[in-house]
Amino acid sequence: MNLSFFDQFSSPSLLGIPLILVATLLPALLLPSPNNRWITGRLSVLQLWLINLITKQLMIPLDKKGHKWALILTSLMLFLLLTNLLGLLPYTFTPTTQLSMNLALAFPLWLATLLTGLRNQPSVSLGHLLPEGTPTPLIPALILIETTSLLIRPLALGVRLTANLTAGHLLIQLISTATTVLFSTMPAISFLTLIILFLLTILEVAVAMIQAYVFVLLLSLYLQENT
To answer: Is the pTM here over 0.85, yes or no?
Structure first.
């Protein structure tokens, strides 16, 4: 039984072909396509309102130079948001529970923000490695510490997203299994665990949205340091 708990995190396959690409592209297919009509439907209006809200929140800490990243950050936010929420549905696969995929999203974008800072303002970007007023004997140690903290940023982004989603999925499966097992022997306890499962599902919906926002927000803060 212990092994079956982790089967939900394995990439599904059909005839030996991994279906993770289909699971990754599915959220984009759910978005309504733009059209040239003056009067649009409620879904299109809701989509535009959500995109404007996300873009405004992400661009607040950035200056005008960082606004060039609006399309990338907003698209990433929508992708993570839809992927995390769709992964909470029964019999679905969540690509963002894979550490390799999260690192593939975090590392190139973090590297792009770093290279942007080194190209536009190299002295300021390198100045973050040594705080002003540091005592001379502590300079080598602080440079080493700041460099290490800089290099582990993409790893922290990927691990944070993977760990939070994986823990939530495991808790939901454990409590749902307990609810099913206890239903025939202790119906009252099973009903209590069902209530806990319902509350936990609401919490996981909030966690899925918050983690998508935190992932993109941290990238925007890294971009702010380098612009």
So the answer is: no
178-202 per-residue burial string, b: 16 or more CB within 10 A, e: under 16: bbeebeeeeeeebeebbeebeebee
Interval 17-37 mean pLDDT: 67
Where do runs of H (alpha helix) occur along the chain?
2-5, 20-30, 42-59, 70-86, 99-120, 122-127, 139-151, 153-182, 187-225
Burial of 33 from C-beta contacts in 10 A (0-12 / 13-18 / 19+): exposed
Return d(Cα 78, Cα 67) in angstroms, integer.
17
Q: What is the pLDDT of residue 36?
A: 66
- Which tokens hold the place of 61? 């800490």
For CA atoms 107, 113, 119, 122, the dihedral sign is negative
For 13, the 3-state DSSP assignment is strand
Let me know: does 11 contact 93? Beta carbons within 8 Å.
yes
* Per-residue pLDDT reduced to its tens digit, 84-123: 888 888 777 788 888 888 999 999 999 999 898 888 888 8
